[in-house]
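Bug #77: duplicate submission created two jobs. Keeping one. Sequence:
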Amino acid sequence: MKRLFKLELLLALCAVAFLDRVTKWWALAYLRPDGTIRIIPEVFHLTFTKNSGAAFSILSGKNTFLIIISMLVIIFIIYSYFKLKPNTITSVSVGLILGGAISNLLDRFMFGGIIDFIDFIIWPVFNVADSGITIGVVALIGFYVWEDFFKKKKSRTPRNR
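Kept job's structure:
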């Protein structure tokens, strides 16, 4: 019997969601709102922010709209998962994406925006969930680009007789 979700997907989802929730709890407890701890001055700080928008603060203040969009995206990701080639890379990648998306969605419900605190100065402040989403998307795209490249290369090479 085929499992509905592979164990790898569930483990990746739970790992990202758990790490994100714990680190956000820490940020809420120990970083003052709009406060910064300089770990490596002008390179890496821990800066508490609440983003009421999407990536790069796009659609700031549109939390209800973003909740609806987030739920639709999560449903689409789950639907798409069953269309993908079933393997460990796709399962882990989708798990990372879903774990991050679900944890950020929880923030929207609980805080009216997403708690961010990882600050590399040259990039907008982000969180563990954002990292999970990014790593999952890059891994998924990379896997399918790599696989497509080798399929095309294999079809162009003459067969040995």
